[in-house]
Amino acid sequence: MTPRELPTTTRPSGAPTKITQGSGARGGIGESTLRPDGILKVTGEFAYSSDLWHEDMLWGQILRSTVAHAEIVSIDTTEALALPGVHAVLTYDDLPAEARHYGLEIQDTPVLAHGKVRHHGEPVAVVAADHPETARRAAAKIRVEYRELPVVTDYASATAPDAPLVHEHRDDHHFPYVPHPNIVHRQPIVRGDAQLASERADVIVTGEYTFGMQDQAFLGPESGLAVPEEDGGVHLYIATQWLHSDLHQIAPVLGLPEDKVRMTLAGVGGAFGGREDLSMQIHACLLALRTGRPVKIVYNRFESFFGHVHRHPAKLTYEHGATRDGRLTHVKARIVLDGGAYASSSPAVVGNAASLGVGPYEVDDVDVEAIALYTNNPPCGAMRGFGAVQACFAYEAQMDKLADALGMDPVELRQLNAMEQGSVMPTGQIVDSPAPVAELLRRVKALPMPPERQWESSEGADVRQLPGGLSNTTHGEGVVRGVGYAVGIKNVGFSEGFDDYSTAKVRMEVAGGAPVATVHTAMAEVGQGGVTVHAQIARTELGVSQVTIKPADTRVGSAGSTSASRQTYVTGGAVRHACGLVREKVLAIGRRKYGSYHPAWATAELLLEDGKVVTDGGEVLAALADVLEGESVEVEAEWRHRPTQPFDRHTGQGDGHVQYSFAAHRAVVEVDTELGLVKVIELACAQDVGKALNPLSVTGQIQGGTVQGLGIAVMEEIQVDPVTAKVRNPSFTDYLIPTILDTPTIPVDVLELADSNAPYGLRGVGEAPTLSSTPAVLAAIRAATGLDLDRVPVRPEHLTGTA
Q1: Count of C-beta atoms within a 10 Å radius of residue 108
Q2: Residue 27 and residue 24: Cα distance in Å, rounded?
Q3: Residue 761 DSSP symbol
Q4: What is the pLDDT, as a whole number, of residue 458?
Q5: Which domains does the chain have, with CATH numbers?
Q6: What is the distance of C-alpha 784 from the center of its chain?
Q7: Is 158 buried (19+), middle (13-18) or exposed (0-12) by CB count in 10 A?
Q8: How crowded is residue 458: how many other Cβ atoms within 10 Å of its Cβ?
Q9: 3-state secondary structure of 501
């Protein structure tokens, strides 16, 4: 049966449903309303993309390369196709369209490897079968002959005169501006004369820092279901961060117009940047169209480590100078990010690392260069913090080193040089909203310290509070406490001239005798709580108590990516804007029906015009119901924040960012200096959020970002063999992430200084705490041990001298 002969499909089980927030959740902006999906998630009833099911579906499986760089001599699928239950096996030569590559910015990633493979785990072939185990067995029967090629794994091997080229035929728009074909993108930031300023410095400190490769480690693996439709198109139910970006990349490869590729967001089990790029989307659609059957693909954990990009590992070299009284004279920096085999979002990450590479400090003379490499290591791209995390680790270590050289308190040094509203960034951009860097440091330092020797109690030692925890390796001998501070700066929203907008469709009508609102966007709810905030905005702007959030899909305009701390700002702004247009129409209807003589309507009119929330029906809601009886109002509208500019290719000057966010941390650690074991006791955070639209969610975002920063500080790293470029630890057995036993107390001090350019004065929240928690932990470990510690994650051997 061909796809065109299929009957119209029904929604598969496990597909998303509408979320209605009614009488049980009436809060507006500024209230801690509960998440509508919260109970379902904690009880295990929430339907994630891996739960999708269709009665006649097939299972897809991907064959991945076993080597990092090799010529593909031959692929033999004969045995796989002969296996009973196998319906299709596809390689590069079976792709239906001329467009066979995709990518977020540079279309350099083949749907299936062609000619050669460029990294360990690259997709080579895909299989569809009637059982997942049959699909796995069939993939194992595909015979691929490789002729291995030399690998490039670092700056030296990638830029050597005789270096193998990862991509032999580059023609992207960054290529004319890079000094070597294995450099994806280069961005300098030059302001003033750093060399001349260095001659005036009384104290100069330098440092070389290494940042490991971190995985997003979301708990829900990549998965989705592609369903062929009777018009020759396909409907993809997918866990992603950006439906429309996926659509724009998928349709050309399938050879279909975009209106024949329908996409609906399925339940997302975490993202953190790892779902911005495509994973199994195209493969599932190709198999569904080839077989005429729905096809489901679910990665296991091993595959997930190969199936998405990671945080860029980095080498960072810094020089800071200061006068004797602690004023910064200059900063020089060189940041080398390993982008791996394909570009992904490396150019944008480079722009962030460069433009934010000095930190939240005032300094007139700056010379920063950031580059990203093409190598045969795993591809790297977006992860929470997006280039600013790596830079923050290095510049904050430098500030501690400088404070030590000057004999100053490290917090006082930071406060002395802290930027504020009106400061000028190294890019020349004026910070035109609150930048309370010094105040955040003051607040976090003023928080009460946790008690000493918490493991001691009248009932006996609580080993959970000791370094090593339940392994019971120490009873307090040789345990030393250390305290460290750090502060960071992160941009909010897409930058460098990108058309950053979002779309919202809002409908208001009467249901059950009461006015209700429906909000429809393509925003990917990945756990950040956007669906909660959208309902809060609708209640505030429209004066209703019941709001329905429709499932995100491509039937409404793009909402952009759930990344860059932008969704509450941009999609929240779009919802607010659409609500305002609906409100105007409702007011016009009311005036037409009642004029100004109906007292209840006059009250409702006043409240709607002032944008005040109505929480309990009463006369106002009755009046709104009367006005809308028999009528409905619907508006779909786009909303954009103020424009940004591309950075100058040679100087890095330009108003490249729309908003900045700031967070400061104080880390308290206890270290067994003999065994090299670390226990993080507390990670206190102070952060300016502009306006806490949902205080409970804001606190959760800050604590979550803090823990991810803790992870890269002391345990998380993807290990790549430096000789073969093969991943050594693609599992949660060997790639460690913090558990509840590793998570310290995280007191949060939220500051609300409104940004007059943003909706409700809000500031993006989710990424800034990921920046400063890592260097704060390292600063605390240095204070406890006296060691320099110039890499993360720090391991026991780094603390005991056995590395």
Answers
A1: 22
A2: 9
A3: G
A4: 58
A5: 52-149+219-270+275-307 (3.90.1170.50), 421-492+656-800 (3.30.365.10), 501-640 (3.30.365.10)
A6: 32
A7: buried
A8: 4
A9: strand
- Confirm if 503 and 510 have CB atoms less than 8 A apart: no
The identity of residue 173, as a single letter, is H
Q: Are 381 and 510 in contact (CB under 8 A)?
A: no
Token output for 181? 């074909």
* CB of 486 closer than 8 Å to CB of 772: yes
Instruction: Report, as an integer, the average pLDDT of 127-147.
Output: 98
pLDDT surpassing 60 at residue 616 = no
Q: Is the pLDDT of residue 160 over 80?
A: yes
Nearest to 211 by CA among 775, 798, 799: 775
- What DSSP designation does 154 have? S
Read off φ and ψ for residue 490, nearest 5 degrees.
Answer: -135, 140
Beta bridge partners of 246: none
- Determine the residue type at 679: K
Assess contact for 275 and 262: CB atoms under 8 A: no
Whether the CA torsion 57, 555, 246, 728 is positive or negative: it is: negative
For residues 273 and 276, give the distance between their C-alpha atoms in angstroms, rounded to a whole number.
6
Provide the token pair at 793: 């994650």
Q: Which residues are CB-neighbours of 414 under 8 A, at least 6 positions away? A: 361, 399, 437, 438, 441, 485, 487
- 790, 314 in Cβ contact below 8 A? no
Q: Encoding tokens for residue 519? A: 């909000």
Q: Which amino acid is at 159?
A: T
pLDDT digits (tens, 9 = 90+) for 374-399: 999 999 999 999 999 999 999 999 99
Mean pLDDT of the chain: 93
Cβ atoms of residues 410 and 779 within 8 Å: yes
Q: What 3-state DSSP class applies to 143?
A: strand
Q: In what order do the strands lie in the sheet with 234-238?
A: 86-90, 123-129, 58-64, 295-298, 223-228, 234-238, 261-265
If you average pLDDT over residues 294-304, what whole number do you get?
98
Residue 165 CA: distances (Å) to CA of 148, 346, 376, 727: 14, 17, 10, 21
What separation in angstroms does the CA of 333 have from each of 200, 359, 587, 646, 660? 18, 12, 57, 21, 21
Rounded to an integer, what is the distance from CA 324 to the centroid of its chain? 40
- For residue 222, the SS3 value is coil
Percent of the chain with pLDDT over 70: 95
Q: Look up the pTM and report it.
A: 0.95
